[in-house]
């Protein structure tokens, strides 16, 4: 591995640790602490290489900086990646418990410069362990004194984003509209339930057959995961992994709106221009999926009630309306307008709260 993955990054600190006993490789990337301690979840999965794991942590940490700034939360951006020696579902409980303890040691070493939370491959129960052993984890389960999973709040925020992006595209009701959801995990399944109540025609894809079967019971039809990007929709909702929409996909995708939960869904900000040129309304991911961060930071740092959290999640709609308005007025993409909004907040320094 070369050091290019480190020298090409603009973040504040990137720490790495390999543990021989477990075979796990731990990365904590602190992108920015300019608005407060860095925060962002812990992703645990198998990677093709350690360089891929480092690059993923760095990209995700950068997205957290934008998310916190756009949501006006008093935190910086960070992310942890645990590159597992095998896929997550092949890691037994004893090994996983040991891996969590090592991650907790790493969090304790950073001593509050970085706070973690759940992400793909980790749960509220894992946050209970990390918090008990380090003191620096958001998103503990309610029985352990935490605010519980961030996924329902993320889904609620994604749904608000879908509605506002659809309105920007001239779609004012989801009744009979084709909503295509990629990824039926904690967030995607909740989004499906919300859209179902509004009478949408639901189409969904997941690599997990049980999750697909559940979506069918909720009234969805299923497409093969490999065919998602060829399936026409009114609203496309990516809720699996990032890096999905590159220039080729942006040129071919048949939808009016893209709004989902996946982090870093565009391979490059310029892809936002490609979508805009085709008249596809894109809700920038770091705004559309900020409901979970609002839930965790709102409840655990700012002391908000569940009602206050809900009101701030509704505020995602107003933020997107501003972004769409700026994009229209300036002849720029919504992605660029959102990046400009976050950059202005970061330049202004700390949060007003
Ligand atoms: P999850 O792990 O519960 O669900 C992801 C789902 O995607 C799984 O069901 C998985 O089987 C499926 N999947 C993976 N690859 C796929 C493919 N190629 N095609 C179709 N399905 C595929 O994760 P989640 O908590 O629902 O989060 C979804 C996305 O949203 C992630 O990218 C996550 O980083 C992002 N996100 C989540 C939150 C949150 O609060 N949970 C907050 C912000 C962003
Ligand atoms: C995300 O929103 O992508 C996360 O990683 C969740 C999160 C948000 C805020 C603090 C910790 C984790």
Structure description:
There is one protein chain. The protein is an alpha/beta fold. The chain folds into two domains: 2-68 and 75-140, Leucine Dehydrogenase, chain A, domain 1 (Rossmann fold, 3-Layer(aba) Sandwich); 151-348, NAD(P)-binding Rossmann-like Domain (Rossmann fold, 3-Layer(aba) Sandwich), CATH 3.40.50.720. Helices cover 45% and strands 15% of the residues. It has 13 helices and twelve strands. It has helices at 4-7, 50-70, 93-110, 124-134, 151-168, 186-197, 209-217, 247-252, 270-277, 285-288, 291-300, 306-330, 334-347, and strands at residues 13-19, 24-32, 38-39, 42-45, 76-83, 114-115, 178-182, 201-205, 221-222, 235-238, 257-258, 281-282. The strands form two sheets. Strands 1, 2, 3, 4, 5 and 6 form a six-stranded mixed β-sheet that branches. The protein has a six-stranded parallel β-sheet with strand order 9-8-7-10-11-12, sandwiched between helices. Helix 5 (151-168) crosses helix 6 and helix 12 (306-330) packs across helix 13 (334-347). The model has no long low-confidence stretch (mean pLDDT 96). The structure holds nicotinamide-adenine-dinucleotide and 3-phenylpyruvic acid.
